[in-house]
Amino acid sequence: SAANAMSGNAERGIQRAWDATAPGGTVLVAPGLYKDQSLSVKESNAGAAGQIKKLVGVKGPDGGPVFVADWDKNKPDQGRSFVTLDWGASNLEFRNLVVKTYKNAFYSKGDNSNLTFANLQVNEARNGIYLNGSRKGSNNILITDCTFTYFSKRGVRFQDGVRHAKVVNCVADAGGKAYATEKFQICFGAGNKGVNGVDEDILFENCVAMNAYDDAGPKYWNADGFCAESNTRRIVWKNCKAFDCTDGGWDIKTAGAELINCVAFRNKRNFRCWSAGGAKFINCIGGYAKMQGGTGTEVGLHVCGKAKVVAENCTFVGNDIQIDADQNATLTIKNSILASIGKQKTKTEDRLVEVAIVDCVVSQGDGAVDPGFKNPTSDWSGEGDNFNTPLGPAKGYHWTANNN
């Protein structure tokens, strides 16, 4: 009971409670402020098959437990992790916790499977949840109902063989310029210099990415909402949104990528795809691309490299360039809307490489006609039917309540 609890603020307080708990048991953490605590989970003190071991916060009238350390955004590579999962530590659940000013809120070394992260709030960190696959891979991961705000590197980071993972109902707000103290902010990332395996079979659903920032002066500015490198396969983004990133809302090289009901607004390149292994966009919208600095182009959909992309029932609106395909890209656009509003122009015809536009509504250039958007606005949050048209759902993006 709370009246007969171990001290969470004693030296190694959380660690002692954890070590005293068997597989299948739960460490309940009472409401309050906990300073400079860390938890190391090894294979020997983790859960077991069919016996999930849990660290769970208990909510009181003034909130739940809050863990605070001394991470400094101006020294982003220094500091402690709140929870470190050693090799093979598996069958674990972390729920109902607030974690602030740690280098990594949750970090795994690899071979960590059957993990659940639920209802977590991570504020001011280098990485929110950073999971490695490594030798045997990490499998069966669920991250749900979590919020990551103000980070210098990643909100959620998968690397080197994470498989069968779901990220659901999560928000990652990088914090923009104030927290861009190293290269590169990415809200949700998969794959990066992995040597042991690919990240594959991952679902992002109902997730929001925003404010990833990179000031490279006169050079190209990076920083993405959703990023997946070439050592990834079969990643699906469903009902996800990306706003106000200095490079891509999406920047993906995934083989077998799918984007369904996704929204990207006010990013430099709302959707950017390099997927030589094929990518499909279904009922997506990219609007009002905005370049905050550096070089590049403001684009609704940028397809490059040897990408092979199909976009169906999509809308690209209010961008300086609606569609930009270069290098050896192949792009097919079907039943979609390409629309500039007002005096915005398109440079599409200057850049297309092996692009087929099939059964689309093209309304762009000086004097372009609004194809009937209900209430088009560049500050749209992605909720509501602002960009529905009388042509939908047969043509272009179409919002319904099921898109949430």
Describe, in plain words, how this protein is organized in 3D.
The protein has 404 residues and is mostly beta strands. Helices cover 3% and strands 44% of the residues. The protein has helices at residues 13-19, 348-351, and strands at 26-29, 32-35, 39-41, 53-57, 65-68, 81-85, 92-108, 115-132, 138-144, 147-159, 162-168, 171-173, 186-190, 199-205, 208-210, 224-228, 232-238, 241-243, 248-252, 257-260, 263-265, 269-273, 279-282, 285-287, 299-303, 308-312, 315-317, 321-325, 330-334, 337-339, 355-358, 361-363.
Give the helix proportion (percent range).
Answer: under 10%
The secondary-structure class comes to: mainly beta
Average residue-wise pLDDT: 92
Shape descriptor reads elongated
Q: What is the straight-line distance between the termini? A: 39 Å
Give a short summary of the structure:
This protein has 404 residues and is mainly beta. Helix content is 3%, strand content 44%.
For the structure shown, list the relevant keywords:
3% helix; mainly beta; 404 residues; elongated; 2 helices; 32-stranded parallel sheet
Secondary structure: elements and pairs:
Elements: H1 13-19, E1 26-29, E2 32-35, E3 39-41, E4 53-57, E5 65-68, E6 81-85, E7 92-108, E8 115-132, E9 138-144, E10 147-159, E11 162-168, E12 171-173, E13 186-190, E14 199-205, E15 208-210, E16 224-228, E17 232-238, E18 241-243, E19 248-252, E20 257-260, E21 263-265, E22 269-273, E23 279-282, E24 285-287, E25 299-303, E26 308-312, E27 315-317, E28 321-325, E29 330-334, E30 337-339, H2 348-351, E31 355-358, E32 361-363
Parallel strand pairs: 1-4, 2-5, 3-6, 4-7, 5-7, 6-7, 7-8, 8-9, 8-10, 9-11, 10-12, 10-13, 11-14, 12-15, 13-16, 14-17, 15-18, 16-19, 17-20, 18-21, 19-22, 20-23, 21-24, 22-25, 23-26, 24-27, 25-28, 26-29, 27-30, 29-31, 30-32
